[in-house]
Amino acid sequence: MEKDYLKDISQIRSIMEKSSRFISLSGLSGVLAGIYALIGAAIAHELVYTSEVIVYERLVLRDVRGNLTALIIIALSVLLLTIVTGIVLTKRKAKKEGVKSWDETTKRLLINLFIPLIAGGILVVIFYNQGLIALIAPVTLIFYGMGLINASHYTYRDIRFLGISEVILGLIASAVIGYGLLIWALGFGVLHIIYGALMYFKYER
User: Fold this and answer.
1) Which of 15, 27, 110, 112 has CB 3.0 to 4.6 Å from 199, enough for a Cys bridge?
2) Separation between Cα atoms, residue 9 and residue 16, nearest integer Å
3) Within a domain: residue 163?
């Protein structure tokens, strides 16, 4: 009798969690996003650190117009691959678990994620126009981390720790100017792979 009671409580808890949290997030998509980011960072490294027109350590931008188009293409390619991969794998996971991949919880998650991301994006444009290139990597890491912390209220709590880690890396990157791209690669590449793998083995196996 007691076992049946505990089982009922467990089922009720599971139903409540599914209705209030976005649990279709795919850990594998995090791993692949990290791989995309590392590839993009490697290509960007060749463009940025081999260019004689960028004085990265002094926060000065002289002229990156020659490499700007290539860097934008790299960034957009990584972003597009990440989004497409996330959508495909999330839908597949949701279908497998018999839950909706788009509902009010998903909307709240995205709103809380994108508010810091949009603010960070605006700040990146401002820094770029002012020539503060070395602050772009720290800003993207910090605001991305803040977005993850916000979004963690509507999905797995593990995402909060990823967000905190991203913020810490962003603060470190702002303190050690000249290593921004490397730390960016650690945050968006290595951390995504580690957390994606952990989430996959914890929730999807």
Assistant:
1) 27
2) 11
3) yes
Residue whose C-alpha is closest to residue 93's, from 155, 157, 16, 25? 25
How does DSSP classify residue 130? Answer: H
The pTM assigned to this predicted structure is: 0.78
Question: What are the structure tokens assigned to 158, written together?
Answer: 């593990």
Would you tell me the crossing angle of helices 158-175 and 191-199 to the nearest 10 degrees? Answer: 170
User: Does pLDDT of 141 surpass 70?
Assistant: yes
Q: Is 38 helix (H, G, I), strand (E, B) or coil?
A: helix
Q: Is 31 left (phi over 0), alpha (psi -120 to 50) or beta?
A: alpha
Compute the CA torsion angle 136, 162, 172, 111 (nearest 10 deg): 40
Reference 165, options 189, 134, 181; nearest CA is: 189
Measure the CA–CA gap between 158 and 152, rounded to whole angstroms.
7
Q: How far is CA 202 from the centre of its chain?
A: 19
pLDDT tens, position by position, 189-205: 999 999 999 988 887 77
| CA pair distance 175, 183, nearest whole angstrom | 11
Phi and psi, residue 56, nearest 5°: -65, -40
Could you list the residue range(s) of the whole structural domain that residue 99 is in? 25-204
* 2 three-class SS: helix
Give the tens place of pLDDT for each residue, 70-122.
Answer: 777 888 888 888 888 888 888 887 777 776 767 787 788 889 989 999 999 89
